[in-house]
Model the fold of this input.
Amino acid sequence: MKSKILVVASLVLSVAFNSNAQSLNSLKDKVVKKDDKGGKVKTIKPYAKDFTDEKGVSGTMFCSPAMLTGKDAYGRDAFQNIFKWEYIHEEGGSIVVKLNIYYNEAGGLIEMKMNEKYNESYATKAFSNNDGLIIEIDKDVYVLYDNADKKVTNVFAKDEAQFAVYDIETATAKYDQKMADIKTKESAAEAAKWMKNETYKLLVGKVNFVDNYNKLSYNRVDAITEKPAVYVTTYPMGLPLYNRAYFKTPITASCGSDCEFNTVYEMETIKCSRVELAKLSSKWSQNFKKREANDYFFTSAYTMQDDRTWDYAYVYCLYQNKDKFVDGKSYKMKVTYYANRDGVDKEMMAEGTITLVYKKENKEKLDLMFQQMEDFLAQ
Done:
């Protein structure tokens, strides 16, 4: 978490320090676990009041590592490792299911809402707002997952002894397991709905190819309107080409929200991976927009090549095979989607093969494209 604090900078709703939103935001990148002399940080006094509730959420929660919560009255960094949680189920005759988290002596607080679906369908206590998620991973042990940093940043426990079991690494692994179980159950129900769609049922687990993205409902995530017949299996090399993949389960269920999509192109033993090429240098990296994890069962229509843009991995694969191309001959191109975490392909999501036909009438277009790739490589 850039603020490393559920709290203040981004999650905070009210502040009781001598500071304001701007000064708190300026602390986002100043998160430390030790002071300048290498010792443990000094923490501020917690809120004095204690809370209880029938669900057992409320109470004193210890936090590891301590969170930077702003500035104290003397302008010094203020860290907190003891928070007071107040769960309110009903208020003023209405069900509100909110969690107030008090982080300083004066009663500064963050407000989050219970995820009732997780609680009712998966017997898991979880609370969230726009910036993060707090979820129970063990009895009275919670983690904070920060949406901006896309990782677990803090562990909360009613018993400090739990920190000997749950450091950040262990807590993250437990969080990943918990979320994978939830996403798998969610996606199973959603997949059953998609299986009623003719196109999805026939093409799930496959990468498919089309000559015009307008033939697809490429900008919709709630509907598949195209028919299987719009896709091609044999196509002239060098002409505009796009692909769409259909997945058995979303990447967030199979790999996690911190994963990304990777596409690998393979022709004649030559493999070109988007993720691997992006790591080669800055010039390569700037040509690959990261394809973030999502909860969808299919991709949009991704461009492999047209008159405006390329997938550099696709074109580079063709470029490395260019000396083999003969007029009228066909060449198979295999395209595979992977769930990738930290540069490593974890799971194959979909794959497909298209036969590309080299034709002399397209030679000039291909030669220009290959020359542009050569110029790029020489930069």
